[in-house]
From TrEMBL:
<protein>
    <submittedName>
        <fullName>Uncharacterized protein</fullName>
    </submittedName>
</protein>
<keyword id="KW-0812">Transmembrane</keyword>
<feature type="transmembrane region" description="Helical">
    <location>
        <begin position="76"/>
        <end position="99"/>
    </location>
</feature>
<feature type="transmembrane region" description="Helical">
    <location>
        <begin position="26"/>
        <end position="44"/>
    </location>
</feature>
<keyword id="KW-0472">Membrane</keyword>
<feature type="transmembrane region" description="Helical">
    <location>
        <begin position="50"/>
        <end position="69"/>
    </location>
</feature>
<keyword id="KW-1133">Transmembrane helix</keyword>
Length: 105
């Protein structure tokens, strides 16, 4: 019955392998910050430059973070950041795009 008392960390959603992952954690933090910034700024029509650029950069950093991620915790939080960045990017593009209002024409 000793096995009944040990926690089963292998099936936990946020299980980690116990090793440090500084690059992955940095990309995770950057993706989350950019995703939240893009998502919140997309709610304001006149901030389309901020939301589209932060969304685009958040998508790129999140995609690379997914490519090199090693734990489920990293992948889960990267998907949340990627989703917020994508929503912000697409709404920013709908409101004026990456260069809307800056380039004469």
């Amino acid at each position: 019955m000793a096995q009944a008392m040990r926690p089963n960390t292998a099936t936990s959603l946020f299980a980690t392998d116990g090793k440090p992952h500084p690059l992955q954690d940095t990309l995770l933090a950057i993706t989350l910050v950019l995703g939240i910034t893009a998502f919140v700024s997309a709610m304001f029509h006149n901030l389309h430059l901020l939301s589209s650029w932060t969304g685009l950069i958040g998508i790129l950093t999140g995609a690379y973070g997914q490519f090199i991620s090693e734990t489920t915790r990293e992948r889960t939080l990267l998907i949340i950041g990627l989703g917020a960045a994508a929503v912000g990017f697409f709404l920013g593009m709908a409101h004026g795009g990456l260069f809307g209002g800056v380039v004469g024409g």
